[in-house]
Input
Amino acid sequence: MLVDRYTKIVLTVIAAALVVQTAKDLVSPARADNITKVDIVKVDGRGLGRWDGAAPLPVRIVGGR
Output
């Protein structure tokens, strides 16, 4: 019957989603090899004394892998 096939497909999709969720919980999260501390003191030669955090800071990555 068509209803049986539909029910079987829906239950299979639900079961697959549960398996994926469980597998995600079993895998440990990635960890960084080392941590680099970054202190931003100037942007374009200007100090951050009056920076209120409302505007994003431009970022340039130097020496990346």
